[in-house]
Amino acid sequence: MKSVFYHLTGVSVNLHLLRSSFVTYCYGDSQCTDAMKDSLASALRHTRKQAQLTYDRRNSSEKKSLAVSLASELAENTIESLSAQLSDRNAGLDKGSWVALTVEGSTLANPNIMLARIQNLMPGRKASLLWFKATAEKGLYAFHYDEASWIESLDALVPVQVKEIKNSPGLYKLTTSLKKIHRAVLGNN
């Protein structure tokens, strides 16, 4: 190996220079994993920190760019998983599905929701809704006609379970917990 370098460069190199060049190259390579760096450090009888300080020749901006790219990749993955969760939650929504929305000012201690039924699905992940107003009796809802159309994003809607009251036509009982609906939209706030 030494003779190859001598014939190529005209300079005699020693074993320590070859080792240092190889390890410096490996530490600077973006494909070098932490496990590989640990192995190199132990082969050189260094601690991981000593090897990092000695052989990592990248400047601070190169080190920061790796951290920034890792952070942006993690953020993208988080956004993708959150959007997948939202689409999973609303995957079964169709015309006639019962949904709920939280009202502004709703808290976990005192959840305030609006009950609706999907009248029509629209382009752009939106839905036209029919509103069911809460009655004086807790947990019961009745259809409320309003001339204005009510359109909401599908991402704001939470699918709920509702059953019709047998002896009272037009009255519906919400069987999904109000706190569960609140948590689905706003978390534990």
Question: Can you characterise this structure?
Answer:
The chain is an alpha+beta fold and 189 residues long. The protein has 3 domains: 4-58, no CATH class; 65-91; 92-187, no CATH class. Helices cover 42% and strands 22% of the residues. It is built from 6 helices and 8 strands, in the order αααααββββββββα. The protein has helices spanning 2-9, 15-28, 34-43, 48-55, 60-89, 178-186, and strands spanning 98-102, 113-122, 126-134, 140-144, 150-153, 158-159, 162-164, 171-174. Strands 1, 2, 3, 4, 5, 6, 7 and 8 form an 8-stranded antiparallel β-sheet that branches. Strand 2 (113-122) and strand 3 (126-134) form a beta hairpin. Helix 3 crosses helix 4. The longest helix is centred in the middle third of the chain and has 30 residues, at 60-89. It is rod-shaped. The chain starts with a helix and ends with a helix. The model has no long low-confidence stretch (mean pLDDT 78).
